[in-house]
Design goal:
about 375 residues, alpha/beta, 7-stranded mixed sheet, VC0802-like, single chain, Rossmann fold
Amino acid sequence: MKIVAKTLFGLESVLSEELKSLGAKNIVPLNRAVQFEGDQELLYRCNLASRLALRFLVPITNFQAHNDRHLYSLAGKVNWEKYLTLEQTFVIDSTTNSTRFRHSQYVAQKVKDAIVDQFKEKTGKRPSVSVANPDVRINLHISENDVDISLDSSGESLEKRGYRTESNEAPMSEVLAAAMVKFSEWDLKEPLLDAMTGSGTIAVEAALIATNTAPGLHRPFAFQNWADYDKGLFDRLQFELRSAIKPIDVKILARDIDESTISVAKRNAVRAGVIDDIAFDCLDFTASDPFAESALILMNPPYGERLEEPEEMIELYHEIGFRLKHNYANHTVWVISSNLPAMKRLGLKPDVRIKVYNGSLECRLNKYSLFKGKRIDQMKE
């Protein structure tokens, strides 16, 4: 069957690699998505093990609609009893990029009407909608006249791993944090420093990767409410993935300037089951020294979106760059930020620039290789 993995902008390539490693076939990268082929076992495995997907969709139908009546009519031709019972609640998540269908809530309402009207005509009863906690989640995507309707196998977004029940202001997506680790091509041998850890997301995702812990082991999925749900298969996959967890063999250090922030990060690490795999340190990076001769540094500094004085961010980034150049030779650094003027004040020329989004903020994920001697001073922008 065809499956579509939704992801964040810029992560299509690393997600494609991950899906290939999980057994996907005929992989086709799309915009914020990757299409592939697989069976029920692969669908379950991907939901449990993918670090880089937001959700996995199984297409039901696609067609062209020319107006709202046409949309209602064609959506009503699907045999919805295959996917939904009267006892189950459902919701329709819709996105639209169309000059004809401008309002996503309106088109969702038309498809919802088609579904409940079909049930009422057949049984005299109507299934109920639940926005907060539906049994069945249906995905509706419209691009101009092209309509795609799919079953959402994941339910709540897969970035909701279950461990981050508390966070500091504007925490990073777990999927984006895992992508930073993947883009870095970390060899799982070199020490890793999460230099401004915040809620601890980067360090936790790195520890989950280092211990080969599947991120979806502690959460439910929408496919568990489907008519063809195979509990035996799901239990076997869970057992297989739990058995694959291994002891950590690398040092991961999470640092932050604020003690209360470190406390939040520690509690998140406890819930993720990796508290013993991460060392925590309350320290200002701009006054720090290396904890290893060489290491991989991943950094998500403040962006300054809410600061009235942008000069404060410019100065912070300048201090970060100064510390990197003068104290962190033989280190590889990846920095993510939406503040592009401030990133230039790092004073380092990036080896790699990747455009990504952190929430609604367009960011750059830049790689900097730091060398001893004159070469580090020659790498200025």
